[in-house]
Design the sequence.
């Protein structure tokens, strides 16, 4: 798991810059290459979600098994704000992210007191409670979800019902979130997180209040997941139960395993691969879940570092 | 001035040219069947829905009439986002003209929205929510086979009509279950029955024993199952273990399909009462259809959802033939204007709110001793006439009706 050493050298940064450029170029010219823009928007939302999740598992070593609660809660709050309260899209996304952040603070305060399987179980239990809440609360629409959410006008001027305006907005949100995570990982704060991942007692003995760092990372991850969930709700104009279901928490783990845990670009590649399977196998009529399961097993058995992790090892640079 | 006249002439000429053409977009009528093909709802339509659509195209004689019809399908995995993105992609990229089926209410509502935006057509067979012709109704959506209102009212009033007046509900504890319980209770009371009580069980429960015990001790004549899918199956199985039906109480299912009965088997499911709009063994036409359908779909008899797909495709193609276009708005209007008539559902019509109406049947599952062979499952207890089977247009709150 600790294949990536947390030292920043200029050559490595160079390699990462190139990959970053490739990624941006991909999302810029993807639609022109015949990829469906709505699909790419979904990929970007889930790439941000997976990257936020990776911030915890990959860089702090905390396996949360309830991240769907942040994605879903933010989606519901954003959809409700945009549809019922008439918020503009940017405010609706902020409201969704804030709700996820707040939930992250509460969940984090409880969960970071334990480690390993106990941490995972606490987050899973909390996520199940949120699922139950979303199923029962009157404003979520139960089984039907919140449908027909208006995309509205960004800052009151840019009409998001135009697919390209929406695409640009999602791209900017995704890149901003991605760069924030990149910056966090390479900041002194990120170094402390990695120290906690490698050896928590030693980090404590060096004088760091590890719980506070873990909580900050947790809240940051929850908030960014919320941004992803809220944006996703606007893209699809709906918020529904499957985004808070535990299987969504599983899917984000799958994305990270396929792409590469603890790598910068792994979650993005993983999200793309998993969603592409979901999307393109659907129209081919395959049994999507079975193929997904097989790929999951293949990944864990054959290339445990994930696509980007293995690639990084090949060129001997962390990506 | 001259330029303006020329432009006018040119635009008139162009308009005439396109009007003269048969306006089938890119020459192909493309039908997209979207449903659950691998998970819990795969049996009620799934790949069988595609078979039914293909049969309808053949029976219509599209090839002979020079109409090119293509059918594609996709698995929405019961996720509204997946369904919504497939629908968008189908309409935008793949030039799909009409989407069929779509079980799971949340997915159907999402597709309903996309279809309306893109001015295409959505023929719902698999989804249950009556919101599709109520609050969320759209000029581009026609709800074909059944809905929650019809199930609750059909089963509720018809059973009270057979003399079983006291009810107890086993309700899934979320919005869908509550709505079913509320609707059915109202009908039962209106028909002169009484509701003795209800017990709520969590969604996807495994153990129904304590709930069934309460239902049993209530001494109600009918135990109404206001739940769906796996919950219904599990409660029926465990009710059979408790000997509830043998003890003289009846089980009434709200959302049950013939594929569920097939999976449960007659010894377990016997005595269950519920409403369907199609039964393969009802008349010669339905038997003939089922006989052709079964070999193409692993020997399974068609469910009402699959029959609904067949019927809706037939009517759709008739409307396309009549209007000479596959434009969603125009075909939808034509489908509402023309009366429906097909071998499976008989004569009927499509109302302004998008509700297709036809007779419904209250059925009881046979005892193993009464069944003459595989798939001989139902006794038809009562026929509910079309005009009474579905929610009156004025009560749905659909904006399309209010405008009239």
Sequence:
């Amino acid at each position: 798991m600790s294949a990536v050493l947390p030292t920043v050298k200029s050559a490595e940064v160079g390699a990462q810059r190139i990959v970053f450029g490739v990624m941006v170029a991909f999302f810029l010219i993807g639609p022109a290459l015949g990829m469906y823009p709505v699909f790419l928007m979904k990929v970007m939302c889930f790439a941000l979600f997976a990257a936020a999740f990776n911030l915890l598992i990959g860089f702090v070593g905390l396996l949360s098994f309830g991240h769907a609660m942040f994605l879903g809660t933010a989606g519901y709050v954003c959809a409700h704000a945009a549809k019922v309260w008439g918020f503009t899209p940017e405010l609706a996304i902020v409201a969704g992210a804030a709700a996820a952040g707040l939930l992250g603070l509460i969940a984090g305060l409880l969960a970071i007191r334990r480690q390993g399987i106990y941490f995972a179980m606490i987050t899973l239990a909390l996520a199940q409670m949120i699922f139950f809440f979303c199923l029962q609360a009157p404003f979520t629409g139960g089984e039907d979800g919140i449908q027909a959410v208006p995309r509205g006008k960004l800052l009151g001027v840019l009409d998001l019902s135009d697919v390209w305006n929406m695409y640009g907005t999602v791209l900017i949100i995704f890149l901003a979130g991605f760069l924030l995570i990149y910056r966090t990982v390479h900041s002194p704060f990120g170094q402390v997180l990695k120290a906690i991942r490698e050896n928590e007692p030693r980090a404590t003995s060096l004088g760091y209040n590890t719980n506070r760092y873990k909580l900050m990372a947790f809240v940051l991850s929850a908030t960014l997941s919320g941004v992803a969930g809220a944006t996703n709700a606007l893209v699809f104009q709906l918020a529904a139960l499957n985004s808070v279901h535990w299987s969504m928490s599983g899917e984000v783990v799958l994305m990270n395993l396929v792409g590469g845990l603890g790598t910068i670009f792994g979650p993005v590649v993983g999200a793309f691969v998993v969603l592409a399977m979901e999307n393109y196998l659907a129209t081919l009529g395959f049994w999507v879940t079975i193929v997904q399961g097989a790929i999951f097993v293949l990944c864990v058995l054959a290339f445990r570092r994930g696509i980007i992790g293995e690639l990084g090892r090949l060129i001997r640079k962390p990506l | 001035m001259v330029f303006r006249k020329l432009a006018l002439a040119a635009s008139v000429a162009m308009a005439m040219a396109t009007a003269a053409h048969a306006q089938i977009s890119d020459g192909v009528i493309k039908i997209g069947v979207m449903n659950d093909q691998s998970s819990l709802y795969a049996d009620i339509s799934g790949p069988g829905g595609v078979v039914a659509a293909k049969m309808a195209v053949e029976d219509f004689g599209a090839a002979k009439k020079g109409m090119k019809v293509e059918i594609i399908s996709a698995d929405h995995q019961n996720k509204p986002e997946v369904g919504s993105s497939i629908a968008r992609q189908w309409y935008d990229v793949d030039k799909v003209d009409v989407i069929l089926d779509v079980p799971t209410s949340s997915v159907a509502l999402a597709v309903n929205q996309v279809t309306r935006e893109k001015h295409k057509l959505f023929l719902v067979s698999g989804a249950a929510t009556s919101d599709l012709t109520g609050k969320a109704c759209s000029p581009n959506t026609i709800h074909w086979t059944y809905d929650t209102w019809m199930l609750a009212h059909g089963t509720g009033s018809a059973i009270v009509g057979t003399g079983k007046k006291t009810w107890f509900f086993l309700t899934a504890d979320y919005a869908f279950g509550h709505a079913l319980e509320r609707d059915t209770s109202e009908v039962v009371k209106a028909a002169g029955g009484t509701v003795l009580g209800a017990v709520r069980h969590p969604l996807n429960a495994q153990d129904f024993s304590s709930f069934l015990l309460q239902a049993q001790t209530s001494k109600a004549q009918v135990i109404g199952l206001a739940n769906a899918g796996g919950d219904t199956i599990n409660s029926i199985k465990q009710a059979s273990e408790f000997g509830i039906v043998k003890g003289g109480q009846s089980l009434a299912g709200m959302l049950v399909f013939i594929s569920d009965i097939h999976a449960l088997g007659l010894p377990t499911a016997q005595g269950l009462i519920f409403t369907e709009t199609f039964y393969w063994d009802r008349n010669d036409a339905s038997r003939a259809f089922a006989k052709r359908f079964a070999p193409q779909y692993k020997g399974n008899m068609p469910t009402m959802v699959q029959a609904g797909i067949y019927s809706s495709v037939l009517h759709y193609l008739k409307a396309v033939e009549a209007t000479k276009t596959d434009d969603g708005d125009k075909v939808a209007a034509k489908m509402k204007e023309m009366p429906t008539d097909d071998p499976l559902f008989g004569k009927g019509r499509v109302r302004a709110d998008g509700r297709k109406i036809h007779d419904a049947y209250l059925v009881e599952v046979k005892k193993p001793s009464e069944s003459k062979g595989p798939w001989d499952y139902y006794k038809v207890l009562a026929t509910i006439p079309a005009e009474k089977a579905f929610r009156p247009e004025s009560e749905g709150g659909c904006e399309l009706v209010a405008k009239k």
Q: What stands out?
A: Residues 210-236 of chain A form the longest helix (27 residues).
